[in-house]
Amino acid sequence: MTTDDITCVAKLRKHIPGVLPAYGRKMMVAYPGQRIVCGRCFELDHVRKVCSNENVEWMQYVKVLVEEEVAPREMFGSWIEILDKL
Q1: Domain that holds residue 44
Q2: How far is 31 from 25, CA to CA, in rounded Å?
Q3: CA-CA distance, 32 to 22, in Å (whole number)?
Q4: How high is the pLDDT of residue 3?
Q5: Following DSSP, what letter does each residue of 40-84 receive, concatenated?
Q6: Cα–Cα distances in Å, from 47 out to 18, 19, 85?
Q7: Cβ(26)–Cβ(19) under 8 Å?
Q8: Number of compact structural domains in the chain
Q9: C-alpha torsion angle, residues 7, 76, 17, 51 (rounded to 10)
Q10: What is the mean pLDDT of the chain?
Q11: What gap in Å lies between CA 57 and CA 51, rounded to an integer?
Q12: What is the per-residue pLDDT for 1?
């Protein structure tokens, strides 16, 4: 498993999810003032430990991000190919 830390400076116009499928990897995003995202249901403002919502599979979450056009389609890389096969 490879982990890389990449730092960038950006002026945000809207919330960026804490976990993004990017270029075939799960990318963690962190910035000051960011709302927390649950690792179980991927909803905002609570954590897995206290989550009573139904578990959401990773690919279901990716599908929602693609449908909501959270980022340009090409950024999702191989995750799009997997979705197309489902």
Answers
A1: 19-85
A2: 19
A3: 21
A4: 65
A5: TT--BS--GGG--SPP--HHHHHHHHHHTTSS-GGGGTHHHHHHH
A6: 12, 13, 31
A7: yes
A8: 1
A9: -130
A10: 85
A11: 15
A12: 56
Is 70 a domain residue? yes
pLDDT single digits (tens) 51-83: 999 999 999 999 888 888 887 788 888 888 888
pLDDT of residue 66: 87
Q: pLDDT value at position 22?
A: 82
- Rounded to 5 degrees, φ, ψ at 53 are -75, 165
Query: Between the CA of residue 8 and those of 11, 29, 32, 70, 80, what are the distances in Å?
Result: 10, 10, 13, 18, 25
Q: Nearest CA to 17 among 49, 51, 41, 52?
A: 41
Identify whether 64 is part of a domain: yes
Domain assignment present for 4 = no
Task: Quote the tokens at residue 22.
Answer: 């990017």
